[in-house]
Amino acid sequence: MAVYLHRLGAFAFRRRWLVLIAWLLVVVGIAVASAGLKGTTSGSFSIPGTQSQKAIDLLEERLPAATGAAGRVVFAAEAGQKIDASQQAAIKTAVAAMGKASGVVQATDPFATGLVSADGRIALTSVQWGMPANLLEVAQRDAVVAAANAAKSSGLEVEFGGDAAPPVAPAGGVGEIVGLAIAALVLAITFGSLLAAGMPLLTAIIGVAIGLLGITAATGFVELSSAVPTLALMLGLAVGIDYALFIMSRHRAQLQQGMEPAASAALAVATAGSSVVFAGATVVIALAALVVVRIPFLAAMGIAAASTVAFAVLIAITLVPALLGFAGMRLAKGKNHTHNGELAPTAGSRWGEFLLRHRIVAVVGTVLVLGGIAVPALNMRLALSDDSTAAVDATQRNSYDLLTTGFGAGFNGPLAVVVDAGAGKDVTAAADAVGARLETLADIQTVAKPALNPAGDTAIISVIPASGPSTTQTKELVKTVRAATEVVAQEHGSEALVTGQTAVNIDVSDRLAGALVPYLIVIVGLAFVLLLLAFRSLLVPLTAILGFLLTITASFGATTAVFQEGFAASLLGVNTQAPIISLLPILIIGILFGLAMDYQVFLVSRMGEARSRGASSRLAILSGFRHGARVITAAALIMVAVFSGFILEDDAIVKSIGFTLAFGILVDAFLVRMTLIPALMSLLGDKVWSLPNWLDRVLPHVDIEGATVEALHNPTARPSVAPVGRAHNLGF
Asked: 136 by DSSP, 3-state: which?
């Protein structure tokens, strides 16, 4: 592979104008496709085959109006006051105007339905549209909002929930700007050159632009989650900067050692580029493997994010060497880590020496620290987000709080029990029996009378739980309701299905939890094979994966402590303690596993280079630190900065994902990859590079270190692997 990458790097350097124009045409082409094919994203989650989705599919067939977009409008007088006569008139006028808005089939009068709080302060109106939420036009929603807001002139507070609330704006803004600014600062410090610092940022932005435009174009064909662009933005910026950084760092070091720019660029793509390809492949595998969990919206997220990472790899091995050609020898300016022609001692080499002297302490200490951080994960509770986790000043959050105050938390997450007697059969008796059984259950506040479809074969019974939608009590209630209604319905020859957004969220969470272990097995297995090919060792991949398990459990522990238990939550702007978003564990595992393997590949491949030149295991570790620690530190800090920028967002999901990724990268890069793994490798000695003879014969040879290409450049050279500084005093 190194030979082919060498040729590719040489071509891109030599034909740099052609490569640059080709990438610009790609950007323009995708932008045109995006403008013409743009669709909409969705914030809803559903999984085919679950009971809640089965009920929705049945209602779409038997009672389509019941599956249309639905929203809540909450009117509230000032605290301590009741809605007076003039305000009541304003509400009635607003309700009438909402009922006449385009697409609205019903807007309920709270004074006719009795949905006024006991203290007379809060009134609730339900709005029903005649089309699904994904087909609801912005103008149709805005018409309802405008009609309701007219009541504000009477002194009422008006808040919106459900599909009546404006969609949450996608993440983007100050957080990304802060992250990029920190990344630029780290690059400038690392390279000591603004030109060198700017190139990884430029290529990363191009990659992100392609990824986001491609996702926008894809929405014209498939429905994507509104979280997809944010995920692609996070990953695109992080890996785009890092992959360019690794190749450029190798190139600059070679220039400063006297190599010609053209030869250096080709060699950098062959060596560091090989590591980029393998590292990128692990990320792509981890994300694309989300398909195996058979959850459509999650599979779409994985494919979209994997595509963005794939573009980042392609840009790194083609556009980056082309830009190196434009820069020429100017990139050699800046920091030079040599002294009198020899590599100077670095903080990385000194840290490596320290680890070799205290390897047992490093291993035990790291395991204990990460194990302690992981403890809160034992109490992690999973649920999908609801309006209670919205930003404190968002109308969704205000409507949630008002409904909780006026009617109880259960009003924010009603359940719908669908009773099906079969096409053409009378459902009345079964529906009445199910309703009577529901009224005997605990933790239920209200059971409405069954509402039948025109054919009389299907009924809907609305159930208001006594607890909030994301509570453990409501989750248990859904199980109880399903068990109880199933028995009663079967006695009358019918079927009972429980749905509603709360039930959908519970079903999605359960399916996600069930898919976690199979998914972990798939990505770990595939990555093990990939690392086995890269390093031709059984213990290197094994220690890499064991280290990742420590990283992921510690990351989940920290996230649980902050977002669920409230530890130091105010420092991060977390205003509400709630269960962890259900899709976070499986997403974080996929993303963090790939990124963790990035650092494993980049650091250990440097050790492998030294090993391939005859160095002992201990010398190889020191050589890897001397050459790789500085750039890996910069790459990790850049990723932490980019992901931390998303903590500044108001959206609780984005905030928690950003925090978990930033914390995970910090832990994995500095405690696992640059402390635990080298210490373990030192303890294992030369055995860490061993491979059974039969397996050595079977496995294809992959030159990830680029030794073949380096031999072509200088067949007689044997670069020194001797450590610097105090390493000489250790007897090496």
From this structure: coil
Beta-bridge partners for 446:
464
For the chain, what are the domain ranges? 70-162, 196-215+222-343, 345-391+513-705, 403-505
Q: How far, in Å, CA of 494 to CA of 427, rounded?
A: 8
Check: CB of residue 556 under 8 Å from CB of residue 664: no
Which one of 3.40.50.150, 3.10.580.10, 3.30.70.360, 3.20.20.140 gives the CATH number of domain 403-505?
A: 3.30.70.360
H/E segment holding residue 444:
strand 444-447
Provide the residue type at 129 as one letter: W
In CATH, what is the architecture of 70-162?
2-Layer Sandwich (3.30)
Compute the distance between CA of residue 104 and CA of residue 145 in angstroms, rounded to an integer: 12
Q: How sure is the predictor about 245, in pLDDT bands with cuts at 50, 70 and 90?
A: confident
Q: Residue 70: beta bridge partners?
A: 128
Burial class (CB in 10 A: 0-12, 13-18, 19+), 283: buried
DSSP characters for 240-273?
A: HHHHHHHHHHHHHHHHHTT--HHHHHHHHHHHHH
Closest CA to 230 of 562, 559, 517, 584: 584
Which two tokens mark 177? 């700007």
What gap in Å lies between CA 465 and CA 481, rounded to an integer?
11
The whole-angstrom separation of Cα 238 and Cα 229 is 14
Helix (H) or strand (E) holding 127: strand 122-129
d(CA 341, CA 610): 19
Neighbouring C-alpha atoms within 13 Å toward the C-beta of 264? 22
User: Cβ distance 135 to 68 under 8 Å?
Assistant: no
pLDDT digit string, tens, across residues 633-676: 888 888 888 888 888 777 777 788 889 999 999 999 999 999 99
